[in-house]
Description:
Layout: H1 2-13, H2 18-21, H3 23-34, E1 37-45, E2 48-55, E3 61-70, E4 75-83, E5 88-96, H4 107-110, H5 136-154
Antiparallel strand pairs: 1-2, 2-3, 3-4, 4-5
Amino acid sequence: MIFTVIFLIFNLINPESLLDQYKQTAGKNISALLGEGELKLLEKNSGHEYYIFNSENSNKGAIVIFSSAKGRIEYFDYMVIVNSSFEIINIKILKYRSEYGYEISNKGWLKQFYGKPSTHFEYRKNIDALSGATFSAPSLVNDVNSILDYLKIFTE
């Protein structure tokens, strides 16, 4: 709890973007999926950072979102990549701070989100429950839904 308060105060004093914090890790992931290109900030909204990705070599455009969600006690940072059809093509847990719940970074579990346009995700319905991530998994599902809902409104 104390770490979370310190982390939040630090971020208010030093508002470095999540992209700045995870540029190397995120950059490798984005390049592997989309090729070389650049990210341009679209908007910061409710703790989410939205970037448009413009590819240098092809017409692959995407939106890259950096966000934080709350596990049982601590927040974790992650990145979502969404294509022009609003299908999630990748989710990457960038930093997980808690001792428990790290299972949400399992690639097999995260694949449940991929390639489903206009889907509202529901934990234990169309997203399987995950042992060991009782708080983190539903938190991630809810945060991803809020991102997708915002993107739909933002692009209308």
